[in-house]
Amino acid sequence: MVLRLEARREPSTLMVFASPAIAVVTTLVVGAALFTLLGYDGIGAVMKIFVEPLFNPYRWQDLLVKAAPLAMIALGLSIGFRANVWNIGAEGQYVVGGLAGTGVALLTYEMSGYWILPAMILAGILGGMAYAAVPAVLKTRFSVNEILSSLMLNYVALQLLYYLTRGPWKDPEGFNFPQTVLFTDWQTLPKVVPGTLIHLGVPIAGVLALVIWFLVVRTVAGFQMRVFGMAPMAARYGGFQESRTVWTAMLIGGGLAGLAGVLEAAGPFGQMTPGFPTGYGYTAIIVAFLGRLHPFGILMAALVLALTYVGGESAQTAIRLPSAAVGVFQAMMLFFLLAADVLVRYRVVNRTTARSQRVSSEPATRNTERAA
Amino acid sequence: MNAAILVSILMTVAAAATPLLLAALGELVVEKSGVLNLGVEGMMLIGAVTAFAVSVTTGSPALGAIASMVTAAAASGIFAALTLGLASNQVATGLALTIFGTGISALAGAPYVGITTTRLGPIFPDALADDPYWRLIFGHSPLVYIALLMTLAVWWFLKHSRSGLILRAVGESDDAAHSIGYPVLKVRALAILFGGAMAGLAGSFYSLVVTPMWAERLTAGRGWIAIALVVFASWRPGRLAAGAYLFGAVITLELQAKAAGLSALAPEFMSSLPYLATIAVLVMISAGRRSIKNAAPACLGKPFRASA
């Protein structure tokens, strides 16, 4: 029996939903095996990371707090990925968003008023947008590949963060630690559930999913973006402008990454430190794919990936699993998702039976001419 | 400036250029076959940690360098299986490979943080490399010469060998290559494995030559610069070598400025220089010219399935 792949006429709806689940389950099984082989407690690692936080109500708030920025960034990225605009610079846009918000916080440090926090948030969104505008300009004006330019800017954003926190923005009374002052109450994100960690960012992420869903499914702009992703030639033929698609994707992606950044700075961090970037911008890429680039899928995928952060922390202390293990689990999930996705477009058939039904696929002639 | 200082600066340029050149040569061959592998950074990290671990365990950095090619090629095998076997999206799969390489190298390297190993130093006897000018020719790590020889080899392979022509045909028109009987997927798989081995060797340069140590994310984004270099070189090996040495000079400038403690510019600005320079050359090479699109292999990034 030889198995081979045969293209489906239509993508399988069942597999669209099933393949993320297959990916997660396979990651758990293979992950446990891999970590056992590497000499760690593999089953313990999987239990600590993926199962225990689910059954510990005290950890649920942690999950929501970690899932919120992941979902926000992934929602923005999904718009671009649908249109084949590959913004890999969310990590940098997140950092710059956080820095822009911090800038406003430092300027308004002595002031009070309800307007301060919205001003910080606005600055964060604009900061992320401005940073994403760089690859957008380079792409539309100079046709520079956005993957490379946006990724390079991640490294530049890190250096900017180091420069500001070590230099001009360093807290003068901070015992020479490279970090800013703690934000005031006016500059801190309020908690939506008193007595928990759950801040305003969590409901914002939920609302954003609804907004993005509406944008993508119900508007002409959303339709254009999808056409560019599926059939760029047809989109151009239909008179849709590619540069507008790039700009829309980049600005929404950058704006949401910037928003996630400023909410993290004003929320869980409460100041700006060199430890601010935690890889959310990269993990959000996995969230976007695992969530099928669909707003509601992304919310669920963000919770799954939040598990790896929350559970990863407790696995570090409980079974001394290195923090890098989290990255391995995350990457495996994306690998298995991409592998399982083949079943959306293809079905597995038994070659021995399938062969008799079709003409031999062997090339008819073997031309030995040099292909120049 | 006296000769000794100048020579030492030029030696640093060669050392900074070599890993970029090695990784970019591999990626160039991969892209010529029509595949875009964005996992270079991840494969370099896997190569770097392997080289270090093997060198520490066996005491032989040469063995470490060879092992780095094996493990990084194995990692590229995952990419090949997914993109060729299962026709997965190449951009997403390459990113997954980079995330995977970053994680697994940090995990495997954890026990090796904070120790050093023997450097993969110059191969020629000291007598030859004593004089500063001769040192410029004979004073390098073997990988520096290997990178230059590989540039010639890749140029010859693509331009003058029959297999190279087939590889280019596969990258320019996979359907046509398939219909005249060339094994498209096999050619691409071999190219990807070659790219993996070269990225691994490039990674080993960081953990065996630049600093004989291991640290998480040791390659610091150089794998991405290597990918950009391929675009900069318009997929031509000769220009690739020139580009790698140009970037070697930029990185050396960064190191020298930091060492000299230039106060006019923040060290953080100097650290961003290679990344900003990458963007600048991408703009220069891409701006307003159609040539860059014509130079790119026509099937770059497109999955291939034989229409049976």
Automatic annotation (TrEMBL), chain A:
<dbReference type="GO" id="GO:0022857">
    <property type="term" value="F:transmembrane transporter activity"/>
</dbReference>
<feature type="transmembrane region" description="Helical">
    <location>
        <begin position="63"/>
        <end position="81"/>
    </location>
</feature>
<keyword id="KW-1003">Cell membrane</keyword>
<feature type="transmembrane region" description="Helical">
    <location>
        <begin position="197"/>
        <end position="223"/>
    </location>
</feature>
<feature type="transmembrane region" description="Helical">
    <location>
        <begin position="283"/>
        <end position="309"/>
    </location>
</feature>
<feature type="transmembrane region" description="Helical">
    <location>
        <begin position="146"/>
        <end position="165"/>
    </location>
</feature>
<keyword id="KW-0812">Transmembrane</keyword>
<feature type="transmembrane region" description="Helical">
    <location>
        <begin position="115"/>
        <end position="134"/>
    </location>
</feature>
<feature type="transmembrane region" description="Helical">
    <location>
        <begin position="321"/>
        <end position="340"/>
    </location>
</feature>
<keyword id="KW-1133">Transmembrane helix</keyword>
<dbReference type="InterPro" id="IPR001851">
    <property type="entry name" value="ABC_transp_permease"/>
</dbReference>
<keyword id="KW-0472">Membrane</keyword>
<feature type="transmembrane region" description="Helical">
    <location>
        <begin position="21"/>
        <end position="43"/>
    </location>
</feature>
<dbReference type="GO" id="GO:0005886">
    <property type="term" value="C:plasma membrane"/>
</dbReference>
<protein>
    <submittedName>
        <fullName>Nucleoside ABC transporter membrane protein</fullName>
    </submittedName>
</protein>
<dbReference type="Pfam" id="PF02653">
    <property type="entry name" value="BPD_transp_2"/>
</dbReference>
<feature type="transmembrane region" description="Helical">
    <location>
        <begin position="93"/>
        <end position="109"/>
    </location>
</feature>
<feature type="transmembrane region" description="Helical">
    <location>
        <begin position="244"/>
        <end position="263"/>
    </location>
</feature>
Automatic annotation (TrEMBL), chain B:
<feature type="transmembrane region" description="Helical">
    <location>
        <begin position="6"/>
        <end position="26"/>
    </location>
</feature>
<keyword id="KW-1003">Cell membrane</keyword>
<keyword id="KW-0472">Membrane</keyword>
<feature type="transmembrane region" description="Helical">
    <location>
        <begin position="38"/>
        <end position="56"/>
    </location>
</feature>
<dbReference type="Pfam" id="PF02653">
    <property type="entry name" value="BPD_transp_2"/>
</dbReference>
<keyword id="KW-1133">Transmembrane helix</keyword>
<feature type="transmembrane region" description="Helical">
    <location>
        <begin position="189"/>
        <end position="208"/>
    </location>
</feature>
<feature type="transmembrane region" description="Helical">
    <location>
        <begin position="214"/>
        <end position="233"/>
    </location>
</feature>
<feature type="transmembrane region" description="Helical">
    <location>
        <begin position="269"/>
        <end position="287"/>
    </location>
</feature>
<keyword id="KW-0812">Transmembrane</keyword>
<dbReference type="GO" id="GO:0005886">
    <property type="term" value="C:plasma membrane"/>
</dbReference>
<feature type="transmembrane region" description="Helical">
    <location>
        <begin position="133"/>
        <end position="158"/>
    </location>
</feature>
<feature type="transmembrane region" description="Helical">
    <location>
        <begin position="91"/>
        <end position="113"/>
    </location>
</feature>
<dbReference type="GO" id="GO:0022857">
    <property type="term" value="F:transmembrane transporter activity"/>
</dbReference>
<feature type="transmembrane region" description="Helical">
    <location>
        <begin position="240"/>
        <end position="257"/>
    </location>
</feature>
<dbReference type="InterPro" id="IPR001851">
    <property type="entry name" value="ABC_transp_permease"/>
</dbReference>
<protein>
    <submittedName>
        <fullName>Nucleoside ABC transporter membrane protein</fullName>
    </submittedName>
</protein>
<feature type="transmembrane region" description="Helical">
    <location>
        <begin position="62"/>
        <end position="84"/>
    </location>
</feature>
